[in-house]
Amino acid sequence: MINRVEKLSLLSEMIAFAQIDESIKSIEYNFLLGVAKQLEISQEDFDYLFQHPVTYVHLKSFSERIVQFHRLVLLMNIGENMNGKQLAKIHNFGLRMGLSHESISRVLDLMESFPNKIVPPDFLIDIFKVQYN
Predict the structure, then answer these.
(1) Per-residue pLDDT tens over the stretch 42-67
(2) Angle at 44 between CA 43 and CA 50, to 5 degrees
(3) Does residue 9 sit in helix, strand or coil?
(4) What is the CA angle 60-114-69, rounded to 5?
(5) Among positive and negative, which fits the CA dihedral 75, 26, 18, 14?
(6) Distances in Å between the alpha carbon of 92 and those of 42, 88, 95, 99, 131?
(7) How many Cα atoms are found within 13 Å in the side-chain-facing hemisphere of 29?
């Protein structure tokens, strides 16, 4: 299980990703708030992160890094205005998390073939299992 500092770091990273186009849509905010609640972070602490980002903390657990990457992919698809800048940013986030270039690229390529561009968790896990083995 991840600790509070790691949880705040995850949220801060997601907020930074959502702010790539300088504004956060209400649907993105609500998604992020849902993740905060899932991580047991109060709304006050969550809102504080918008003005006071937390330094990135590398997750030790490979499975937690995959879950976080999946959250970022979901967040990217909520915004509906996916562009090259967002794809590059999510790719770099994945690399920084220690995920393989090949696996990240495969996920981003495959998402086009799924309804609403949402890669099902089991497909995502299978893609990253290849990297882990």
Answers:
(1) 999 999 999 999 988 888 888 888 88
(2) 90
(3) helix
(4) 15
(5) negative
(6) 28, 6, 5, 10, 17
(7) 8
